[in-house]
Amino acid sequence: MDFLPADINAYAEAHTSPETDVLSQLSRNTRAHVMAPRMLSGHLQGRFLSMIAHMIRPRRILEIGTYTGYSALCLAEGLTDDGRLITIDHNEELESFARSYWQRSPLANQIELRIGSAADVIPALDETFDLVFIDADKRNNALYYDLVFDKLRPGGIILADNVLWSGKVVNPVKPADQDTAAVLAFNQKIQDDPRVENVLLPLRDGIMMIRKF
């Protein structure tokens, strides 16, 4: 997942605004106590998510894939005072872990967790979103994109994570495994979509930044 040399990555983090204490504790305890800690957004990507949210000043954010709640806190930093972030995850086992850190933040009341399948939850949302972060199972990236597109305001932003898929997009095993094939198909789908402008950023495991016309 880390494409840059370790010293370059360390330099980048050293010249990036620090995490809050709550985020630092959340990161540390995720790595110590939760399976698959590489799923955590982490310092550099977290500050990027926060920066984008501050630039947009969204009233409504949708996050697909909560994990331990780190990225939700980062995104929520940029919400308007009356804003709300809805985050969806199918894994209820990490709910209390995530909530315990949200409660240590002044943003807790602006974060709403929906437990369930995103494919079922999204169609039931009666909201118009300013910012969407897709960071869940890669095989359904295209489905989530299609489900949220009409709920995103014109000019709104979709961020999709892991679009470089540990470098497999440029050096896939043949035949490609299902996850790699799904990421490749999603990236091409976005590239070919005339309704959007997109930039693939080689940040961490790759973020596709998409602006709806």
Put the structure in a nutshell.
The protein is an alpha/beta fold and 213 residues long. It has eight helices and seven strands.
**How helix-rich are the residues, as a percent range?**
25-40%
| Helix vs. strand class | alpha/beta
CATH architecture: 3-Layer(aba) Sandwich
What is the fold-level CATH name, i.e. the topology? Rossmann fold
Globally, the shape reads globular
Instruction: Note the main sheet.
Output: 7 strands, mixed
Which H/E pattern describes the elements?
A: HHHEHEHEHEHEHEE
Tally of structural domains: 1
Count of individual beta strands: 7
CATH uppermost class: Alpha Beta
Arithmetic mean of pLDDT: 95
Folded structure, characterized:
- The protein has helices spanning 6-14, 21-33, 42-56, 70-76, 95-102, 118-121, 141-149, 178-191, and strands at 60-64, 84-89, 111-115, 129-134, 152-161, 196-201, 207-212.
- The longest helix is centred in the first third of the chain and has 15 residues, at 42-56.
- Strand 1 (60-64), helix 4 and strand 2 form a beta-alpha-beta unit.
- Helix 3 runs parallel beside helix 4.
- The protein is built from eight helices and seven strands; from the N terminus they run H-H-H-E-H-E-H-E-H-E-H-E-H-E-E.
- It has a single domain, classed as Rossmann fold.
- With 213 residues, it is an alpha/beta fold.
- It has a seven-stranded mixed beta sheet, sandwiched between helices.
- The relative contact order is 0.13.
